[in-house]
Amino acid sequence: QFTIKDHDEL
Amino acid sequence: MNIFRLFGDLSHLAAIAILLLKIWKTRSCAGVSGKTQLLFAVCFITRYIDLFLHFVSLYNTEKVMKLIYISASVFTCYLIFFKFKATYDGNHDSMRAEFLIVPAAGLACLINTKFDAIEILWTFSIYLEAVAILPQLFLISKTGEAETITSHYLFAQGSYRALYILNWIYRYHYESHVDTIAIVAGVVQTILYCDFFYLYITKVVKGQKIVLPA
């Protein structure tokens, strides 16, 4: 299961 | 945080610093596309809009980095369009930025992870960043050459997203983290640099200047 967290990159 | 993302962000910071130094030291923005810098400023503002909405204390480096990116890109635009306006090569910086902004905005409304304002702005910023370098590459193809320092800027700018691709591979493998929109846009963005990378590796590294076939 792939997780898309909140965009945690710059 | 992994080594690829760390060096990606450092490369991005280096690119911004190199460009600022070039303009400040030579007191000229010849060979620099003001439109690309404007597009980058728009990218940072729309991507880091959360800084303005719920401003939390600068408790971590990420907030500081976001502020550095926004202020440095706005300051770069100020240098190009105000302080050293006389040296701005407007005639060659002639790619229509609207042709990049409108499709990015349209696509952000069609393909996004969730249809809410902040997410649409973030998606727009990702799509716009993928094509934001085009006016700069267009300008170089029009003038037929690039100053060595400008090619170093472009190399650092292109490497940042290339390193992010390695970061995404790493995160896919170890954290099963996938952000498809950022990955697809990042791959497109890096592909746009390919011919420049080839010229940079074959020419600039040997101390020659980049001269494009006019």
From TrEMBL, chain B:
Family the entry assigns: Belongs to the ERD2 family.
Domain of life, source organism: Eukaryota
Keyword Iron belongs to the record: no
Upper classification of the organism: Eukaryota, Metazoa, Chordata, Tunicata, Appendicularia
Predominant place of localization: membrane
Positions in coiled-coil regions: none
Keyword Nuclease tagged: no
Designated name of the protein: ER lumen protein-retaining receptor
